[in-house]
Amino acid sequence: MPRSSGWWTKARAGDAWAFGQLFDHFHLPIYRYIASRVHSPADAEDLTQQTFVKALEAFPRYESRGHSLRGLTLPAGQEYRHRLHQDQARTRGP
Description:
Number of helices: 4
Shape: elongated
Largest sheet: none
Strand content: under 5%
Distance between the termini: 50 Å
Order of helices and strands: HHHH
Number of strands: 0
Helix content: over 70%
């Protein structure tokens, strides 16, 4: 099991230090995942931060089927799609 598995377990229990370790470990891969889909580095950073905020809020309910990057790429993809829909709605207007 990867070394991050203990961090997942502790973060789910509310351990802020463990969540910080997950952030440090997964921030760059999540940023790269999002940056490959958006045109602006600022948007990529914003969506990356939103991904981790949502993950922090959801961690007590999170049921991992493994301790991997996939546990964060799914919410990252959801954040990207949500932003994309918002941008499209703004472009179309009221």
